[in-house]
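Sequence only, no structure available. Ideas?
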Amino acid sequence: MPTYTRNDSMWRKTMKAGLSLFPVFMLTVASCTFSCKQNDMATAMQTDISAPVFPDYADTLVLPPNIAPLDFRIRSDSFSDGPYHVWLYVQSPSGALLDSLHVKTKRHVHFGTTAWQRCLQQASQCEGSLLVDIYAKTDGNDWIKYARKTWKIVSDSIDPYLVYRLSAHDENPCRKLQVYERSLSDFSERLLMDNRFTDNNCMNCHANSDNDSRKMMVHLRGEHAGTLVIDGEKTLKIAIPEGYPDLRLAYPSWSRDGKYITFASTRIQVHSHANKSRTQDLVTDTLGKILLYDVERNRLFSCPELMDERYEFSFPAWGADGKRLYFCRAEKTARLKDFKYDLYSIDFDSRNATFGAVKPVYGFKASGLSVSMPQADPNGRYILATTLLLGSFPSQNQGDLHLIDLWTGKARHPSALNSPDGEKYHHWSSNGRWVVFGSKRMNGGLSHIYISHFDRRGRFSTPFILPQHEDNFYLKNTRSYLFPTLSRNASSLSLESWEKAVKEPAQAPDMDYFKKLHRPGARTPEAGH
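Reply:
I predicted one. Tokens follow.
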């Protein structure tokens, strides 16, 4: 066989041809390896029992083509204590096997990011699936094969970044607050905010505009109270000036055009409350109003319909086109059991900053529920909202997700998303095909992030928990994942720039609209809750 140097044209042609055959070569090697291993397990007993894995990834899932590996731990059961062979195949819709991965392990299964992404790419190009076969060796030195897992890979990508807040789960949740940005295609993450650098001040809910973390805001309390508005490389810290004790900036929603941020001006009240499984406080909101902040003009304003003293307002949310604002509204009442919110909307002219009439969207109170945290999908047809038994504050352990179809005016309870424990804050992907949400379903105490596909027929897939690479991560974790928000791009914020901005003095927005509410000498509350 002739030899070639790197400068030889024949060497370059040979390498080019060899590289073009690389996927076929890899599949051949994988198939050969499988054949050898399969011979060792040819007598494996097939069982219809699902392998005991943790996290509990379902046997049927829908995954995006850009998600990190779904690594997991195999728990021992009555069949086996290991070792295990795990085979992952790429299957086309016609049933052809296109590629495969093999993992031999005692307990923990790590697919490897590069190989996993290769398989995802192949599967997504043909709307295929990943097949996961798990073989276990029994005490009698025999092999069993658990029920196959089939994970369908769709072409719908999920936004590549996820921003979330980590909170301590103890009597002092503000003791250690951090906001992270996670890359969903792998396990890398970046710390954006950390209150250990800012005198342990409380950081409340954050929000972005049009799934863009370069336009993001966050509430600050304590010594550095204010609302931090990050618009690209520009950062502004605002705070309501003295003399407006009934105005607050809580529960934000940023319009998709980036021009307006809407807030609920609320004050929480804590009521002693107990349920069958755990004792907890019941929290309700009062002083409810809806305020709008004009980002370009640094102006705060509202309208009479959103400050009506007969009602409590909470959790505003922009519609997909920015021409409608949704919000939760309840009649004021002294009877706690009647304190329930329904969903309303009001038209908004962004160019002139004027409002239309308030319109009912869906009445949850008639069915004994109260609506909270509505989120409009970016395609303009649906609203996903959390429902509670009372009030709108999401810290309660109850909470189910409901989907409202704005075309039909009907609401339904997607069983795929809900669990016996609380479902919390949720956020749509920019293409409207994915939803991330918080849930306490794993242990009833900590909130973790789950991901579900939303298809073109309005159906949610079985949710899967945010993948983690560290062995036994969710067994060791003691912190709650809060306010997950998807983003199309990385934030322009760094930990250093955030710390500097937090410690800057706050500026007062234009308050001309609210001057009739000004009470000189009255104490102005901190931003948010």
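The first helix runs from residue 9 to 20.
Hope that gets you unstuck.
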